Amino acid sequence: MPEAYARVIGQFAYVWAWPMVNMHNRRNRFDQVPEPGLLDGVAPAAPVNEICMLTDYVDPMERIVATPNQDVVYGFGLLSLDREPVVVQVPDFGDRFWVYQAADQRTDGFAQLGSMYGTRPGLYMLVGPNWQGATPPGINAVFRSPTTVGAFAPRVFQDDTAEDRQRVQPLIRQIMAYPLSRSTGRMQTRDWTTVPRFPAPAGASAGETKWVDPETFFDSLPKVLEEAPPLPGEEAIYGQVRALLDAAKAKPELMAVLKRVAAETEDGLISTLFNWRNQGIPVANGWTTMVNAAAWGTDYLTRASAARANIFSNVAVETRYFAIDLESDGSRLEGSHRYTVTFPAGQLPPVRGFWSLTMYGETHFFERNDLNRYSLGTKNHHLKTGPDGSLTIHVSGEPPEDAAQRTNWLPAPRGKFSLYLRAYWPGPEILDGRWTPPPVRRTS
Protein backbone atom coordinates (compact mmCIF):
# COMPACT_ATOMS: atom_id res chain seq x y z
CA MET A 1 0.00 0.00 0.00
CA PRO A 2 1.59 3.33 -1.03
CA GLU A 3 2.26 5.75 1.79
CA ALA A 4 0.28 8.54 0.09
CA TYR A 5 -2.81 6.31 -0.10
CA ALA A 6 -2.38 5.25 3.53
CA ARG A 7 -2.27 8.88 4.55
CA VAL A 8 -5.56 9.68 2.76
CA ILE A 9 -7.45 6.71 4.19
CA GLY A 10 -5.83 7.22 7.58
CA GLN A 11 -6.99 10.82 7.83
CA PHE A 12 -10.54 9.88 6.91
CA ALA A 13 -10.48 6.98 9.38
CA TYR A 14 -9.33 9.29 12.16
CA VAL A 15 -12.28 11.68 11.71
CA TRP A 16 -14.79 8.91 11.02
CA ALA A 17 -13.87 6.74 14.02
CA TRP A 18 -12.92 9.50 16.49
CA PRO A 19 -16.28 9.31 18.37
CA MET A 20 -16.14 5.51 18.51
CA VAL A 21 -12.58 5.47 19.85
CA ASN A 22 -13.60 8.15 22.36
CA MET A 23 -16.39 5.89 23.65
CA HIS A 24 -14.12 2.83 23.64
CA ASN A 25 -11.58 4.61 25.82
CA ARG A 26 -14.23 5.93 28.22
CA ARG A 27 -15.60 2.40 28.64
CA ASN A 28 -12.11 1.07 29.36
CA ARG A 29 -11.52 3.80 31.95
CA PHE A 30 -14.87 3.14 33.65
CA ASP A 31 -14.03 -0.57 33.72
CA GLN A 32 -11.48 0.37 36.37
CA VAL A 33 -14.00 2.12 38.64
CA PRO A 34 -14.59 -0.20 41.62
CA GLU A 35 -18.04 1.08 42.63
CA PRO A 36 -20.36 4.01 41.87
CA GLY A 37 -18.71 7.24 42.91
CA LEU A 38 -17.42 10.64 41.82
CA LEU A 39 -14.36 11.04 39.58
CA ASP A 40 -12.26 13.96 40.75
CA GLY A 41 -14.87 14.31 43.49
CA VAL A 42 -17.42 15.87 41.11
CA ALA A 43 -18.28 13.72 38.04
CA PRO A 44 -20.53 10.65 38.34
CA ALA A 45 -18.86 7.37 37.39
CA ALA A 46 -19.61 3.72 37.98
CA PRO A 47 -18.47 0.24 37.01
CA VAL A 48 -19.49 -0.65 33.46
CA ASN A 49 -23.23 -1.46 33.17
CA GLU A 50 -24.07 0.62 36.25
CA ILE A 51 -24.57 4.33 36.90
CA CYS A 52 -23.88 6.87 39.60
CA MET A 53 -26.34 9.70 40.25
CA LEU A 54 -25.60 13.19 41.48
CA THR A 55 -27.96 14.66 44.06
CA ASP A 56 -27.78 18.28 42.88
CA TYR A 57 -26.53 20.27 39.90
CA VAL A 58 -23.12 19.24 38.62
CA ASP A 59 -20.18 20.90 40.34
CA PRO A 60 -18.90 23.85 38.25
CA MET A 61 -15.38 22.40 38.32
CA GLU A 62 -16.37 19.14 36.57
CA ARG A 63 -13.99 18.41 33.67
CA ILE A 64 -14.87 14.85 32.61
CA VAL A 65 -17.64 15.66 30.09
CA ALA A 66 -17.74 19.00 28.24
CA THR A 67 -20.75 21.36 28.17
CA PRO A 68 -22.46 20.23 31.38
CA ASN A 69 -25.60 22.06 32.45
CA GLN A 70 -26.92 23.20 35.79
CA ASP A 71 -30.60 22.69 35.06
CA VAL A 72 -30.85 18.97 35.74
CA VAL A 73 -29.60 16.37 38.17
CA TYR A 74 -27.35 14.10 36.15
CA GLY A 75 -26.43 10.46 36.29
CA PHE A 76 -23.92 8.67 34.11
CA GLY A 77 -22.47 5.30 33.28
CA LEU A 78 -20.84 3.38 30.43
CA LEU A 79 -22.34 0.26 28.85
CA SER A 80 -20.73 -2.96 27.65
CA LEU A 81 -23.77 -4.88 26.45
CA ASP A 82 -21.76 -7.84 25.18
CA ARG A 83 -21.52 -8.92 28.82
CA GLU A 84 -25.25 -8.93 29.64
CA PRO A 85 -28.33 -6.70 29.37
CA VAL A 86 -28.80 -3.74 31.69
CA VAL A 87 -32.00 -2.99 33.63
CA VAL A 88 -32.89 0.68 34.19
CA GLN A 89 -35.45 1.98 36.67
CA VAL A 90 -37.99 4.74 35.97
CA PRO A 91 -39.69 6.24 39.05
CA ASP A 92 -43.02 8.02 38.87
CA PHE A 93 -41.84 11.53 38.00
CA GLY A 94 -45.36 12.95 37.78
CA ASP A 95 -45.25 16.21 35.82
CA ARG A 96 -41.51 16.77 36.45
CA PHE A 97 -39.46 16.81 33.23
CA TRP A 98 -37.03 13.93 32.79
CA VAL A 99 -35.22 12.09 30.03
CA TYR A 100 -32.87 9.11 30.03
CA GLN A 101 -30.27 9.15 27.28
CA ALA A 102 -29.04 5.80 25.99
CA ALA A 103 -26.32 6.31 23.36
CA ASP A 104 -24.47 3.71 21.30
CA GLN A 105 -20.78 3.77 20.43
CA ARG A 106 -21.42 6.28 17.63
CA THR A 107 -23.20 8.52 20.21
CA ASP A 108 -26.53 7.87 18.46
CA GLY A 109 -29.59 7.58 20.70
CA PHE A 110 -31.19 4.12 20.70
CA ALA A 111 -33.86 4.27 23.44
CA GLN A 112 -36.97 6.34 23.98
CA LEU A 113 -37.29 7.02 27.69
CA GLY A 114 -38.61 10.34 28.93
CA SER A 115 -41.42 12.82 29.42
CA MET A 116 -41.84 13.36 25.68
CA TYR A 117 -42.46 9.64 25.13
CA GLY A 118 -45.07 9.19 27.86
CA THR A 119 -42.88 6.51 29.45
CA ARG A 120 -44.58 4.62 32.27
CA PRO A 121 -42.82 4.08 35.61
CA GLY A 122 -41.16 0.70 36.01
CA LEU A 123 -38.30 -1.41 34.69
CA TYR A 124 -36.78 -1.28 31.20
CA MET A 125 -33.94 -3.20 29.61
CA LEU A 126 -31.05 -2.25 27.33
CA VAL A 127 -29.58 -5.09 25.25
CA GLY A 128 -26.74 -5.49 22.76
CA PRO A 129 -27.02 -6.22 19.04
CA ASN A 130 -26.67 -9.99 19.43
CA TRP A 131 -28.80 -10.61 22.52
CA GLN A 132 -31.36 -13.39 21.96
CA GLY A 133 -32.69 -14.05 25.47
CA ALA A 134 -36.27 -13.98 26.70
CA THR A 135 -37.62 -10.78 28.24
CA PRO A 136 -37.93 -11.35 32.01
CA PRO A 137 -41.28 -10.74 33.75
CA GLY A 138 -41.76 -7.16 34.93
CA ILE A 139 -39.78 -5.51 32.11
CA ASN A 140 -41.94 -2.86 30.39
CA ALA A 141 -39.89 -2.63 27.18
CA VAL A 142 -36.57 -3.63 25.65
CA PHE A 143 -34.28 -1.26 23.70
CA ARG A 144 -31.58 -2.75 21.47
CA SER A 145 -28.27 -0.97 20.89
CA PRO A 146 -26.62 -1.51 17.48
CA THR A 147 -23.22 -1.60 19.24
CA THR A 148 -21.97 -3.34 22.35
CA VAL A 149 -20.39 -0.18 23.83
CA GLY A 150 -22.59 2.72 24.86
CA ALA A 151 -23.46 5.27 27.53
CA PHE A 152 -26.46 5.89 29.76
CA ALA A 153 -27.24 9.32 31.22
CA PRO A 154 -30.41 10.19 33.17
CA ARG A 155 -31.39 13.87 33.40
CA VAL A 156 -34.05 15.14 35.84
CA PHE A 157 -35.13 18.78 35.92
CA GLN A 158 -34.68 20.66 39.20
CA ASP A 159 -35.78 24.18 40.09
CA ASP A 160 -33.07 26.38 41.56
CA THR A 161 -34.65 26.37 45.03
CA ALA A 162 -33.85 24.61 48.29
CA GLU A 163 -37.41 23.29 48.38
CA ASP A 164 -37.15 21.55 45.01
CA ARG A 165 -33.75 20.12 45.87
CA GLN A 166 -35.49 18.30 48.71
CA ARG A 167 -38.51 17.27 46.65
CA VAL A 168 -36.39 15.60 43.97
CA GLN A 169 -34.34 13.43 46.37
CA PRO A 170 -36.82 10.50 46.73
CA LEU A 171 -36.96 10.26 42.92
CA ILE A 172 -33.19 10.29 42.54
CA ARG A 173 -32.86 7.39 44.99
CA GLN A 174 -34.99 5.28 42.66
CA ILE A 175 -32.93 6.02 39.52
CA MET A 176 -30.69 3.01 39.04
CA ALA A 177 -29.12 0.88 36.32
CA TYR A 178 -27.58 -2.54 36.91
CA PRO A 179 -26.83 -5.82 35.11
CA LEU A 180 -29.81 -8.11 34.50
CA SER A 181 -28.28 -10.72 36.80
CA ARG A 182 -28.81 -8.34 39.75
CA SER A 183 -32.45 -7.58 38.95
CA THR A 184 -35.11 -8.70 41.41
CA GLY A 185 -37.98 -7.75 39.14
CA ARG A 186 -38.85 -4.92 41.53
CA MET A 187 -37.72 -1.32 41.98
CA GLN A 188 -34.59 -0.93 44.12
CA THR A 189 -33.27 2.20 45.84
CA ARG A 190 -29.81 3.67 46.46
CA ASP A 191 -28.67 6.53 48.68
CA TRP A 192 -26.46 8.50 46.29
CA THR A 193 -25.30 10.95 48.96
CA THR A 194 -22.75 8.49 50.38
CA VAL A 195 -20.78 7.48 47.26
CA PRO A 196 -16.97 7.55 47.42
CA ARG A 197 -14.62 9.84 45.50
CA PHE A 198 -11.96 8.74 43.02
CA PRO A 199 -9.00 10.48 41.36
CA ALA A 200 -9.58 12.18 38.02
CA PRO A 201 -8.43 10.31 34.88
CA ALA A 202 -5.05 11.21 33.44
CA GLY A 203 -5.29 14.19 31.13
CA ALA A 204 -7.82 16.22 33.11
CA SER A 205 -7.01 19.92 32.93
CA ALA A 206 -8.76 23.21 32.22
CA GLY A 207 -10.51 21.48 29.32
CA GLU A 208 -12.17 18.12 28.94
CA THR A 209 -10.25 14.98 29.87
CA LYS A 210 -8.34 13.80 26.80
CA TRP A 211 -10.23 10.67 25.79
CA VAL A 212 -8.58 10.20 22.36
CA ASP A 213 -4.80 9.91 22.08
CA PRO A 214 -3.49 10.14 18.48
CA GLU A 215 -0.50 8.01 19.47
CA THR A 216 -2.67 4.99 20.35
CA PHE A 217 -5.65 5.65 18.04
CA PHE A 218 -4.79 3.13 15.34
CA ASP A 219 -3.78 0.54 17.94
CA SER A 220 -7.32 0.68 19.37
CA LEU A 221 -9.15 0.82 16.05
CA PRO A 222 -9.26 -2.96 15.29
CA LYS A 223 -11.13 -3.60 18.53
CA VAL A 224 -13.47 -0.67 17.88
CA LEU A 225 -14.42 -2.12 14.49
CA GLU A 226 -15.44 -5.33 16.26
CA GLU A 227 -17.53 -3.47 18.85
CA ALA A 228 -19.43 -1.35 16.30
CA PRO A 229 -20.70 -3.30 13.25
CA PRO A 230 -21.05 -1.25 10.04
CA LEU A 231 -24.14 0.79 9.39
CA PRO A 232 -26.00 -0.12 6.19
CA GLY A 233 -23.76 1.01 3.34
CA GLU A 234 -20.61 1.23 5.48
CA GLU A 235 -19.26 -2.21 4.59
CA ALA A 236 -16.84 -0.73 2.03
CA ILE A 237 -15.51 1.75 4.59
CA TYR A 238 -14.85 -1.08 7.03
CA GLY A 239 -13.12 -3.00 4.28
CA GLN A 240 -10.85 -0.09 3.38
CA VAL A 241 -9.97 0.64 7.02
CA ARG A 242 -9.28 -3.02 7.79
CA ALA A 243 -7.04 -3.24 4.71
CA LEU A 244 -5.17 -0.18 5.99
CA LEU A 245 -4.74 -1.72 9.43
CA ASP A 246 -3.56 -5.02 7.95
CA ALA A 247 -0.97 -3.22 5.85
CA ALA A 248 0.25 -1.24 8.85
CA LYS A 249 0.49 -4.40 10.94
CA ALA A 250 2.67 -6.02 8.29
CA LYS A 251 4.79 -2.92 7.76
CA PRO A 252 5.79 -1.04 10.96
CA GLU A 253 6.98 2.01 9.04
CA LEU A 254 3.43 2.39 7.69
CA MET A 255 2.03 2.36 11.23
CA ALA A 256 4.49 5.13 12.05
CA VAL A 257 3.05 7.12 9.14
CA LEU A 258 -0.48 6.59 10.52
CA LYS A 259 0.54 7.83 13.94
CA ARG A 260 1.90 11.01 12.34
CA VAL A 261 -1.34 11.37 10.34
CA ALA A 262 -3.35 10.98 13.55
CA ALA A 263 -1.39 13.74 15.30
CA GLU A 264 -1.68 16.06 12.29
CA THR A 265 -5.42 15.46 11.94
CA GLU A 266 -6.02 16.00 15.65
CA ASP A 267 -4.19 19.34 15.58
CA GLY A 268 -5.27 20.51 12.13
CA LEU A 269 -8.91 19.41 12.00
CA ILE A 270 -10.38 17.88 15.15
CA SER A 271 -9.22 20.82 17.27
CA THR A 272 -11.05 23.28 14.99
CA LEU A 273 -14.31 21.34 15.35
CA PHE A 274 -14.32 22.34 19.01
CA ASN A 275 -15.56 25.79 17.97
CA TRP A 276 -19.34 25.89 17.74
CA ARG A 277 -19.21 28.10 14.70
CA ASN A 278 -17.81 25.07 12.85
CA GLN A 279 -20.50 22.71 14.10
CA GLY A 280 -23.92 21.92 12.66
CA ILE A 281 -25.65 24.56 10.54
CA PRO A 282 -26.00 28.33 10.89
CA VAL A 283 -29.37 29.84 11.79
CA ALA A 284 -30.52 33.40 12.37
CA ASN A 285 -28.63 35.97 14.48
CA GLY A 286 -25.27 34.19 14.43
CA TRP A 287 -26.35 31.02 16.22
CA THR A 288 -25.65 27.48 15.05
CA THR A 289 -27.61 24.31 15.74
CA MET A 290 -27.55 20.59 15.05
CA VAL A 291 -30.72 19.25 13.47
CA ASN A 292 -29.49 15.65 13.60
CA ALA A 293 -28.08 15.46 17.13
CA ALA A 294 -27.58 11.87 18.28
CA ALA A 295 -28.93 10.67 14.92
CA TRP A 296 -25.87 11.27 12.77
CA GLY A 297 -26.23 8.62 10.08
CA THR A 298 -23.37 9.24 7.63
CA ASP A 299 -22.83 12.86 8.68
CA TYR A 300 -19.38 12.01 9.99
CA LEU A 301 -18.22 15.62 10.22
CA THR A 302 -21.01 16.74 12.55
CA ARG A 303 -20.71 13.53 14.54
CA ALA A 304 -17.01 14.16 15.12
CA SER A 305 -17.51 17.83 15.94
CA ALA A 306 -20.24 17.02 18.46
CA ALA A 307 -18.09 14.34 20.07
CA ARG A 308 -15.27 16.88 20.35
CA ALA A 309 -17.30 19.86 21.56
CA ASN A 310 -20.38 18.53 23.37
CA ILE A 311 -20.54 14.75 23.43
CA PHE A 312 -23.72 13.04 24.68
CA SER A 313 -26.19 15.37 23.00
CA ASN A 314 -29.81 14.26 23.14
CA VAL A 315 -31.79 13.53 19.97
CA ALA A 316 -33.67 16.52 18.56
CA VAL A 317 -37.15 15.61 19.86
CA GLU A 318 -35.64 15.52 23.37
CA THR A 319 -33.44 18.61 23.15
CA ARG A 320 -32.52 21.19 20.54
CA TYR A 321 -29.23 22.99 21.15
CA PHE A 322 -28.22 26.45 19.90
CA ALA A 323 -24.70 27.84 20.32
CA ILE A 324 -22.89 31.09 19.63
CA ASP A 325 -19.32 32.25 20.21
CA LEU A 326 -18.96 35.23 17.83
CA GLU A 327 -20.33 38.76 17.71
CA SER A 328 -22.11 39.99 14.59
CA ASP A 329 -18.83 41.44 13.23
CA GLY A 330 -17.07 38.08 13.60
CA SER A 331 -15.08 38.96 16.72
CA ARG A 332 -15.09 36.64 19.72
CA LEU A 333 -17.52 37.16 22.62
CA GLU A 334 -15.47 38.62 25.47
CA GLY A 335 -16.30 39.13 29.13
CA SER A 336 -14.73 42.59 29.06
CA HIS A 337 -17.76 43.78 27.06
CA ARG A 338 -21.44 43.97 27.96
CA TYR A 339 -24.16 42.18 25.99
CA THR A 340 -27.90 41.63 26.15
CA VAL A 341 -30.09 38.80 24.93
CA THR A 342 -33.73 39.95 24.71
CA PHE A 343 -36.67 37.61 24.19
CA PRO A 344 -39.64 39.68 23.00
CA ALA A 345 -42.96 39.20 24.76
CA GLY A 346 -44.45 35.84 23.89
CA GLN A 347 -41.22 34.64 22.24
CA LEU A 348 -39.48 32.66 24.95
CA PRO A 349 -38.28 29.30 23.64
CA PRO A 350 -41.45 27.28 22.87
CA VAL A 351 -40.83 24.14 24.91
CA ARG A 352 -42.89 21.57 26.78
CA GLY A 353 -39.98 20.80 29.08
CA PHE A 354 -37.72 23.71 29.98
CA TRP A 355 -35.16 26.06 28.46
CA SER A 356 -31.94 27.64 29.67
CA LEU A 357 -29.20 29.97 28.50
CA THR A 358 -25.82 28.71 29.73
CA MET A 359 -22.47 30.46 29.99
CA TYR A 360 -19.26 28.59 29.11
CA GLY A 361 -15.66 29.67 29.15
CA GLU A 362 -13.31 29.10 26.24
CA THR A 363 -12.97 25.37 26.96
CA HIS A 364 -16.77 24.75 27.10
CA PHE A 365 -16.79 24.41 30.88
CA PHE A 366 -17.95 26.65 33.70
CA GLU A 367 -15.61 29.19 35.23
CA ARG A 368 -16.40 30.03 38.83
CA ASN A 369 -18.14 33.29 39.69
CA ASP A 370 -19.18 34.85 42.98
CA LEU A 371 -22.89 34.21 42.38
CA ASN A 372 -22.33 30.52 41.53
CA ARG A 373 -24.64 31.24 38.58
CA TYR A 374 -23.94 29.57 35.24
CA SER A 375 -27.32 29.54 33.50
CA LEU A 376 -30.66 31.30 33.55
CA GLY A 377 -34.02 30.04 32.35
CA THR A 378 -37.07 28.08 33.43
CA LYS A 379 -35.51 27.05 36.74
CA ASN A 380 -35.10 30.71 37.81
CA HIS A 381 -38.40 32.07 39.08
CA HIS A 382 -36.89 35.43 40.05
CA LEU A 383 -36.27 36.65 36.47
CA LYS A 384 -37.80 40.08 35.80
CA THR A 385 -39.61 41.00 32.59
CA GLY A 386 -39.86 44.49 31.12
CA PRO A 387 -43.03 46.63 30.96
CA ASP A 388 -43.70 45.23 27.47
CA GLY A 389 -43.41 41.63 28.68
CA SER A 390 -39.97 41.03 27.17
CA LEU A 391 -37.20 39.22 29.03
CA THR A 392 -33.66 40.62 28.81
CA ILE A 393 -30.68 38.68 30.07
CA HIS A 394 -27.58 40.77 30.75
CA VAL A 395 -24.25 39.12 29.95
CA SER A 396 -20.92 40.57 31.12
CA GLY A 397 -17.87 39.95 33.27
CA GLU A 398 -18.79 42.80 35.63
CA PRO A 399 -22.25 43.22 37.22
CA PRO A 400 -24.66 45.56 35.42
CA GLU A 401 -24.30 49.13 36.59
CA ASP A 402 -28.06 49.28 37.17
CA ALA A 403 -28.66 47.18 40.29
CA ALA A 404 -32.19 46.36 39.09
CA GLN A 405 -30.70 44.44 36.15
CA ARG A 406 -28.57 42.14 38.31
CA THR A 407 -31.42 39.69 38.85
CA ASN A 408 -31.16 38.90 35.14
CA TRP A 409 -27.36 38.95 35.03
CA LEU A 410 -25.50 35.95 33.60
CA PRO A 411 -21.87 36.38 34.75
CA ALA A 412 -19.23 35.89 32.06
CA PRO A 413 -15.55 35.01 32.51
CA ARG A 414 -13.06 37.81 31.96
CA GLY A 415 -11.87 36.37 28.67
CA LYS A 416 -13.52 34.55 25.79
CA PHE A 417 -16.84 32.83 26.31
CA SER A 418 -19.68 31.10 24.49
CA LEU A 419 -23.43 30.96 25.04
CA TYR A 420 -25.49 27.81 24.72
CA LEU A 421 -29.27 27.67 24.63
CA ARG A 422 -31.00 24.38 25.45
CA ALA A 423 -34.63 23.72 24.59
CA TYR A 424 -35.73 20.52 26.30
CA TRP A 425 -38.75 18.83 24.70
CA PRO A 426 -38.82 21.48 21.97
CA GLY A 427 -42.07 22.52 20.34
CA PRO A 428 -42.71 22.19 16.60
CA GLU A 429 -41.71 25.83 16.04
CA ILE A 430 -38.18 24.95 17.11
CA LEU A 431 -37.99 21.63 15.31
CA ASP A 432 -39.09 23.09 11.96
CA GLY A 433 -36.94 26.23 12.27
CA ARG A 434 -39.68 28.84 12.77
CA TRP A 435 -38.17 29.83 16.15
CA THR A 436 -34.51 30.64 16.66
CA PRO A 437 -32.78 32.52 19.50
CA PRO A 438 -32.66 36.32 19.47
CA PRO A 439 -29.42 38.18 18.71
CA VAL A 440 -26.65 38.70 21.25
CA ARG A 441 -26.24 42.50 21.20
CA ARG A 442 -23.10 44.24 22.43
CA THR A 443 -23.99 47.32 24.46
CA SER A 444 -20.52 48.49 25.52
UniProtKB/TrEMBL annotation:
Residue span(s) of domain DUF1214: 319-427
Pfam families noted in UniProt: DUF1214, DUF1254
Ranges for domain DUF1254: 48-179
UniProt name for this protein: DUF1254 domain-containing protein
Lineage, uppermost ranks: Bacteria, Pseudomonadati, Pseudomonadota, Alphaproteobacteria, Acetobacterales
